[in-house]
UniProtKB/TrEMBL annotation:
Keywords: Cytoplasm, Methyltransferase, rRNA processing, S-adenosyl-L-methionine, Transferase
Membership in a protein family: Belongs to the methyltransferase superfamily. RNA methyltransferase RsmG family.
Protein name: Ribosomal RNA small subunit methyltransferase G
Record-listed S-adenosyl-L-methionine binding positions: 78, 83, 131-132, 147
Organism (species): Parvularcula marina
Function statement: Specifically methylates the N7 position of guanine in position 527 of 16S rRNA.
Length: 214
């Protein structure tokens, strides 16, 4: 993606990603529901909403090119109001990719389920269970994302038992990514790549494969 100014509106976001009319319409519906719900329910930090097209939609959409086209299952841990999982659900809806959005806070899971249903996103399933319960069910996913959920070592404990062989973990991280990598490496072995985030010069995106407890 060329480094152009970050989007401040749906139109700028749609232009940046060359969205067709249908996809633009889905983002419009999502955003309408987000604003309407956030006005009375705590599904997202309200003070981030004025900047949401860069801070939430674009920050999520930048993960789309990282998802392998042959992936068939994706889990977003702690989706909140759908970042990044619901954004990826819209962008990947024509792929054979089943997306699970997990958030253990009932009102967030309800917002996600109602929005996915209203947008006709049959590729999305929503769970209000804690993802720890997925471990017992031996669920597994080709790609696991999580944004702003917990530090890397905690994410590895949550996600690695759920990762299919050959799968990838994609974790957007803030300015402490290197510290988190160092801390996580005391308990875990993993391959990693650190990509620059294009929404925030201090942030990065960690891509991890083959995580294993030491
Ligand atoms: C700070 S919010 C981030 C939401 C969203 N990913 C974002 O970046 O806007 C963290 C979310 O993770 C959820 N969460 C934390 N631990 C979880 C777990 N073990 N299982 C499911 N959801 C969890 C919380 O309920 C919360 O909604």
């Amino acid at each position: 993606m060329a480094e152009t100014a970050l989007p401040r509106s749906l139109d700028e976001f749609a232009d940046r990603h060359a969205l067709d009319a249908e996809t633009r319409g889905l983002f419009a519906q999502y955003d309408e529901r987000l604003l309407e719900t956030a006005a009375h329910t705590n599904v997202i930090s309200r003070n981030t909403l004025p900047d949401r097209w860069a801070r939430h939609y674009e920050d999520s959409a930048q993960l789309f090119p990282l998802i392998r086209e042959d992936a068939t299952t994706l889990l977003d841990i702690g989706s909140g109001a759908g970042f990044p999982g619901l954004v990826l659900g819209i962008l990947c809806r024509d792929r054979p990719l089943k997306i699970t959005l997990a958030d253990s806070v009932g009102k967030k899971a309800r917002f996600l389920a109602e929005t996915a249903h209203a947008l006709g996103l049959s590729n999305i399933t929503v769970s209000s269970d804690r993802v720890e319960s997925f471990h017992v069910k031996r669920m597994s996913f080709d790609v696991i994302t999580a944004r702003a959920v917990t530090a890397l070592d905690g994410l590895l404990a949550l996600a690695s038992p759920l990762l299919a062989p050959g799968g990838m973990l994609i974790f957007p991280k803030g300015a402490r990514a290197d510290e988190e990598l160092t801390a996580a490496a005391t308990g875990w072995r993993f391959n990693h790549e650190k990509r620059a985030s294009h929404t925030d010069p201090d942030a990065s995106i960690l891509i991890l494969t083959e995580p294993e407890r030491r």
